[in-house]
Amino acid sequence: MELNDFLPYQLSVLSLKISKGIAEHYQDQFGINISQWRVLVILYKNPDITAKKIAQLSQMDKVRISRTLKSLVEKDYLTQHPHPLDARAKNYELNKRGKYLMRAVIPDALQYEKDLMSQFSDKEQEQLQHLIAKFNRILS
Prior knowledge:
Layout: H1 7-30, H2 34-45, E1 49-50, H3 51-58, H4 62-74, E2 78-82, E3 90-94, H5 96-117, H6 122-139
Antiparallel strand pairs: 1-3, 2-3
């Protein structure tokens, strides 16, 4: 078996390349890493949720989520408060500063995606979206 021809490996490498490119940009422009960006986006769309729910939505491991949440609280982008039904859990949400950051980050992320996708024809973009959706259905 040739590793470079193995589809899971190819997709993993591609994902890392895309993530690395955007991570460098976010670090330079906003002082956040890719894990922080992912958590911020999740909380922007899903306010007041637990670390466990963030892990489910992000497909990131719990340790990474915990470290990321801690760093975002320290940077004063999030507030945390006790979960109303589970004394062991905390809920997280963007505070005013976090919402302000996201109003800058989201348009920037969409422009990054647009620039990347502009390398493909309209037909190729449709095919790519179709294949991604099909993989997600198959793997669900």
